[in-house]
Amino acid sequence: MSDLDRDDIPSNHSQAESFNELLGKQLARRGFLKASAGASTLAFFGFSLNKSAAFAQTAATSLAAPVPSMSFKAVEASTADKIVVPEGYRYAVINRWGDPLFTDSPKWKGDATDDSAAQTMQIGDNHDGIHYFPINGSSTEGLMVTNHEYINPDYFFPANVRVAGENWNADWVKKSQRAQGVCVKHIRYDGQNWKTVLDSKYNRSINALDTEMVLTGPSAGHDLLKTKADPSGTVVFGTFGNCGNGYTLWDTYLTCEENVTDYFGSLKEGVESNTLMKRYGVATKASDDSYRWETHDKRFDVAEEPNEWMRHGWIVEIDPFDPESKPSKLTALGHFKHENAAMTLAADKRVVVYMGDDQRSEYIYKFVSDGKFDPANKEANRTLLDKGTLYVAQFADGEQAGDLKGKGKWIPLTLDTVGQDGKKLGELFKDQGELLVKTRLAADAVGATPMDRPEWIAVNPHTQEVYVTLTNNSDRGSDKERKGTNGLKHPGIDDANPRAKNPYGQIVRWNESGKDAAAGEFDWDVFVLAGNPEVHKEPGNLMAGTQNVSAKNLFNSPDGLAFDKDGRLWIQTDGNFSDQGNFAGNGNNQMLVAIPETETGKGEIRRFLVGPSGSEVTGITWTPDYKTVFVNIQHPGEYGKHPRAPKVTPQEDPLAFSKWPMGDNDDPEGSGGRPRAATVVIWREDGGVVGA
Fold it and tell me: Which residues contact 72 (CB under 8 A, 6 or more apart)?
């Protein structure tokens, strides 16, 4: 985690009652709810890693719910610069930043002097969302699709290069652009190791500079999306800020554009910021110090191309099996800082996609398609995400205060919907295309509930419960002004967010009415409050967390989230790894496994993996037999204000804080001269299902 987490910067000026403003009360630490349970009438199909035939086979049936178990011994917290996995498990490092996609790819240089031409033939940086697409159902050969979210300039450029400094030039900008986006890699297990199949027709870099994409859905061709280079408003080059991901029932990949506003700025003085730019946090001066693309690419100068930023911040659909296909930016799914996309089916087989807007005081959304999923018609399915209704969530407290549960409803973001002021949205937006470009403003108008950084969303494959990570909020209840909100304060506490200046985060879940993902109402409760009972020992102190948090499984800032086929919940963290103060005993960022139960604070949680120094653990996917799991390690060596931060800068000694994966027990080639993001593949020594 960097000194300033850009996801933490709020820009919501909504007057709506927030989660934090529903109640103004203190809760007893161990006041838990008993939620209703029951068998799902429709199984969630997103866990299947087989091709669409597998979805078709189970489309009209329920899945018998197995009893999930965990046989592994939990690992201890660690502050070491290495991967830690349970006894009886092994791992290997694959797909590092800079590894080749082709036989003629230039070899990655440890001093970071590779140019942009080299980077387009290499794997990108800072891996995030990930998915394994099997070839013919294989658990030993498939396509690995990986997000590359951003770059760490301290490590990404040579020692003599500073962003926008004396040696800054157009090629450094292009190198940064080509390291971000998505990589498709054909991988195969040869009996000993997983390796990239070099020169496979599937291998490609889908990056921020070179890749032509098409805009689809209601906003395609809208005046707001037209530029000098693209007067049609339908052709976009590049994707970046790619955070979490999703995948479809028809074997395509969904990559989620998140912090795209960080990449835009202006070299000109006196550029005015309009209401929409302020709402989304678009700068009119220099862009973020990590990028400064506007210095050599006019697309990213808001004075030169004022509409370009609105062409990013969408969910992008990629067909990994068709290397000639153009990715599609899906405007029907809304324009905001997308974390991930969790797909399931409604009772009538309409497609439903859950999404979070990852910024403090932002919202949770779901999309419901007009058309129905047809397992026998892949081509027809490809248009399902172009037409449908986008909804935003409104949470309310239940009848009984203090039980960490309540009711909620989904509000359609359509022109006919009446907002809080009694006016239809059609009076605020001239058409649906404009409404979707301005999704945040539409959600404000209808009174959506501001949440605390909604991160990953996952659906239980057997109960249809939907889970979301709310990662943290240091400003909750602080009375500080939200940036760009004209005086609105950060909200106070409530049932779902019961702690002021919450450093730990929590996981909230809900059940749709009738177990139907297309329902208009839901019941919600809190699954777990992260905390530290070893530090906060006072009776009733909510900072201790719920009862399923103990000294053996301390964690903070839950982020990544996924269910496996048996219903185990995998939790990944991107939080404070100082191992001091409130976070004593947490160690480095980690991945845990939970057995969900219907009662808040119940359900065992065990630590499964700990990452190396300075890293985030993110992204998870399995082979179809669930005997192999792939996990991403992002930004190793990012130390910020860590108490063990080296006295030298990364330019002086890039290996001072982390050498990972160089020297790791299963990285025989070594890393070279600086830390590198990479994928870790994990398996059981006895060949069993991972985690079981």
Answer: 86, 87, 88, 89, 593, 606, 608, 691
Instruction: Give dist(CA 674, CA 658) in Å, integer.
Output: 8
Please give the structure tokens belonging to residue 595. 């057995």
CA-based end-to-end distance of the chain: 31
What is the C-alpha R_g of the chain? 23
Instruction: Report the largest interatomic distance among the alpha carbons of the chain, rounded to a whole angstrom.
Output: 65
Q: How many other CB atoms are found less than 10 A from the CB of residue 347?
A: 15
Is residue 102 within 8 Å of 199, Cβ to Cβ? yes
CA 272 to chain centre: 31
Cβ proximity of 528 and 545 under 8 Å: yes
Strand partners, 247: 253
Find the mean pLDDT for residues 561-581: 97
**Cβ pair 456, 559 in contact under 8 A:** yes
- Tens-place pLDDT, residues 500-525: 888 999 999 999 999 999 999 999 99
**Tens of pLDDT, residues 334-350:** 999 999 999 999 999 99
For the entire predicted model, the pTM comes to 0.92
Nearest-angstrom CA–CA distance, 468 and 475: 20
Instruction: Concatenate the DSSP letters of all residues of 264-303 into one string.
Output: -B-SSSSPPP-HHHHHHT--SS---TTT-GGGT-GGGBTT
The DSSP code for 306 is: T
Secondary element (H or E) of residue 360: strand 360-362
Q: Give residue 486's pLDDT.
A: 53
pLDDT value at position 475? 78
Which residue shows structure tokens 């050498």?
659
Secondary structure (3-state) at 347: coil
Given this model, what pLDDT does residue 105 score? 98
Helix, strand, coil percentages for the chain (3-state, nearest 5): 15, 30, 60
**Nearest to residue 317, comparing CAs of 235, 265, 385, 365?**
385
Structure tokens at 96: 């590092």
Nearest to 334 by CA among 234, 412, 439, 457: 439
257-273: per-residue pLDDT in tens?
Answer: 999 999 999 999 999 99
Structure tokens at 132: 């394994």
Among left, alpha and beta (phi > 0; psi -120 to 50; other), residue 550 is beta
Instruction: Please report, for residues 29, 34, 463, 604, 605, the alpha-carbon distance to residue 597 in angstroms, rounded to integers and kept in the order given.
Output: 18, 10, 11, 9, 11
Angle at alpha carbon of residue 431, lines to 344 and 252, rounded to 5°: 30
For residues 280 and 224, what is the distance between their CA atoms, to the nearest angstrom?
A: 15
CA–CA separation, 152 vs 176, rounded Å? 10
> DSSP string spanning 398-464?
-SSTTSSEEEEEEEE-STT-B-TTS-BGGGT-SSHHHHHHTHHHHHHHTT---EE-EEEEEE-TTT-
Cα gap 626→692, rounded to integer Å: 10
Q: How far apart are alpha carbons 376 and 450 in whole angstroms?
A: 40
Asked whether 620 and 110 are in contact (CB, 8 A), the reply is no
| 211 token code pair | 């890749």
Buried residues in 185-211 as b, exposed as e (16+ CB within 10 A): bbbbbeeeebebeeebebbbbbbbbbb
Q: Which residues of 422-437 are buried (b: 16+ CB within 10 A; e: fewer)?
A: eeebeebbeebbbbbb
Helix (H, G, I), strand (E, B) or coil at 180: coil
User: Which residues have a Cβ under 8 Å from the Cβ of 192 and sit 6 or more positions away?
Assistant: none
